[in-house]
Amino acid sequence: MSGFLTTHVLDTARGLPAQGLQITLYRLQDGARVELARMTTNEDGRTDSPILPQAGFATGRYELVFAAGDYLRATGQAGAAPLFLDEVPIRFGISDAASHYHVPLLLSPYGFSTYRGS
C-alpha cells in the first residue's frame, strides 16, 4: 500500500478553519520545482481530496506553498502593505512511501507554524 499527503489550514487569529486558501504542491528534483497539484481549502480548512494521492505518492523532497497573502486580504486581515506574510513555503521530505504524511499550517497575519501531523 502506498501513502498519501494531506494538509489542513487553521486561522489562529480568527479561531476558524482557513476556507478559500490556495495551496500549490511542488516536487523538488534536480534543482527544479515541478508543480504537482493546486487546490483550495474547503469550509473545514482542508482540501476535498489528498493533495498528493496514493497514485502519485513517492519518496522525495516536496514544497507546499500556501497563498496566505491572498487569504489574509480576502478576510480583511492584511494590514498595511507590504504584507508581513504573503506566500508561505514549507519544504519537507517524504521518506516512507507507505505512510500518511499530514502537513498542517497554523496561520495568523504575523506568524505561522507547522508540524508533521497524523
TrEMBL record:
Q: Which residues form the Transthyretin/hydroxyisourate hydrolase domain?
A: 5-117
Q: Which Pfam families match?
A: Transthyretin
Record organism: Roseinatronobacter alkalisoli
Keywords recorded for this protein, A-Z = Hydrolase, Purine metabolism
Reaction catalysis annotation:
5-hydroxyisourate + H2O = 5-hydroxy-2-oxo-4-ureido-2,5-dihydro-1H-imidazole-5-carboxylate + H(+)
Gene from which the chain derives: uraH
The entry's family comment says: Belongs to the transthyretin family. 5-hydroxyisourate hydrolase subfamily.
Is the Cytoplasm keyword given for this protein?
A: no
Q: Name one GO molecular function term.
A: hydroxyisourate hydrolase activity
**Name the UniProt record assigns to this protein:** 5-hydroxyisourate hydrolase
* Gene3D superfamilies the record matches: Transthyretin/hydroxyisourate hydrolase domain
Q: Per its UniProt record, what InterPro entries does this chain match?
A: Hydroxyisourate_hydrolase (IPR014306), Thyroxine_BS (IPR023418), Transthyretin/HIU_hydrolase_d (IPR023416), Transthyretin/HIU_hydrolase_sf (IPR036817), Transthyretin_CS (IPR023419)
Can the keyword Methyltransferase be found in this entry's annotation?
no
Q: Which PROSITE patterns match?
A: TRANSTHYRETIN_1, TRANSTHYRETIN_2
According to its UniProt record, this protein's enzyme class is hydrolase
Report the EC code(s) recorded for this entry: 3.5.2.17
Q: How does it assemble?
A: Homotetramer.
Coiled coil (residue ranges): none
Recorded superkingdom: Bacteria
Role played: Catalyzes the hydrolysis of 5-hydroxyisourate (HIU) to 2-oxo-4-hydroxy-4-carboxy-5-ureidoimidazoline (OHCU).
